[in-house]
Amino acid sequence: MITTPRAGAPVLGLAKAIQLSVAPVFLLTAIAGVLGVISNRLARVLDRSRDTTVQSSDH
Predict the structure, then answer these.
(1) Whether 19 contacts 25, CB under 8 Å
(2) Looking at the whole model, is its pTM more than 0.70?
(3) Residue pLDDT, tens place only, 1-58
(4) Residue of 1, 20, 26, 49 with fewest CB within 10 Å of its CB?
(5) Distance of alpha carbon 38 from alpha carbon 45, whole angstroms
């Protein structure tokens, strides 16, 4: 029979410590993903701007 740990059990403290240490990793990963997307879009905007500048100077 499996029982739930008591309120003061060391397992709960360990579980809470793991939970608190892993949460920032997910946050940093999400921030890095968003920054990567924004950086990629900015690069595409700059590429497009350069292309239109070259095309306008050709005519």
Answers:
(1) no
(2) no
(3) 666 667 667 888 888 888 889 989 999 999 999 999 999 999 999 999 999 988 888 7
(4) 1
(5) 11
> Up-side HSE of residue 20: CA atoms within 13 Å toward CB?
6
Query: Concatenated DSSP letters for the chain?
Result: ---PPPTT-HHHHHHHHHHHHHHHHHHHHHHHHHHHHHHHHHHHHHHHHHHHHHHHHH-
Taking the C-alpha atoms of residue 39 and residue 48, their distance in angstroms, rounded to an integer, is: 14
Q: For residues 58 and 56, what is the distance between their CA atoms, to the nearest angstrom?
A: 5
